[in-house]
Amino acid sequence: MPTAGGDAVTYCERFEQAFAGRAQTSVLSLFCRDPWGYTDPSMLLDQDLVYVGGGSTANLLAVWRHHGLPDILRRAAEQGTVLAGISAGMNCWYEASSTDSYGPLAPLRDGLGFLPGGACPHLFGEEDRRDSLRRWVASGQLPTTHAADDHVALVWRDGALFEAVGEAGGHPAFRVERTGDDAVEHEIPVRVLG
Questions:
Q1: Which of 91, 113, 141, 186 has the most crowded CB, counting CB atoms within 10 A?
Q2: Is 87 a catalytic residue?
Q3: Residue among 140, 139, 155, 190 at smallest CA distance from 169
Q4: What distance in Å separates the CA atoms of residue 33 and residue 98, rounded to the nearest whole number?
Q5: Would you state the pLDDT for residue 105?
Q6: Which pLDDT belongs to residue 194?
Q7: Would you say residue 72 has pLDDT above 90?
Q8: pLDDT value at position 193?
Q9: Of residues 56, 87, 98, 132, which has the active-site annotation?
């Protein structure tokens, strides 16, 4: 689902090329981009995995809500479909997130709420992500937040964090929670995949 990037054709083509011969892919283009056109979003109920790309979290959420995607995605998850994504595709599943949807980094408290608390992708991959996150959690602008550096995935099962996995060492994940007027980071062990 490339909604966060405005269904950019090159992004969709790279996705299809990356999985060619390894998986049967489909693209849900809510912007009716050629060659995919418009597909009924209920097609997500027939998928084993839904992958959401990066871009604008705020725009993604607005477009999805207009097309009825939150209910469809919740039903898909209840049927066992894996929900995944990077950047905005990480943020969307949580109650809140750290986003640059409005230009400068800002807290967004309008996520789908499939996962509890907040999300923060690109922890060390983008300037000021970590400092902003700590400030927002300390002030209560964001709830307890799960933060992941680039190359790290947080795996949730039935609403609980199961593990963090990474494709390379040296990329951490944290749970950041408010304690008094401060934000405290609790490191989440990252299992590096072979």
A1: 91
A2: yes
A3: 190
A4: 29
A5: 96
A6: 82
A7: yes
A8: 96
A9: 87
Q: Determine phi and psi for 144, rounding to 5 degrees.
A: -50, 130
159, burial (CB in 10 Å: exposed 0-12, middle 13-18, buried 19+): exposed
Taken as a whole, the chain contains a residue count of 194
Instruction: Please report the pLDDT score of residue 49 as a whole number.
Output: 97
Q: HEC string of 18-78?
A: HHCCCCCCCCCCCCCCCCCCCCCHHHHHHCCEEEECCCCHHHHHHHHHHCCHHHHHHHHHH
Each residue of 4-49: pLDDT tens digit? 999 999 999 999 999 999 999 999 999 998 898 888 999 999 999 9
Specify whether the CB–CB gap between 27 and 15 falls below 8 A: yes
Q: What is the sign of the dihedral through the CA atoms of 105, 109, 113 and 116?
A: positive
The catalytic residue among 98, 122, 146, 171 is 122
| 171 noted as active-site residue | no
Q: Coil, strand or helix: which one is 181?
A: coil
State pLDDT tens for residues 109-165: 999 999 999 999 999 999 999 999 999 999 999 999 999 999 999 999 999 999 999
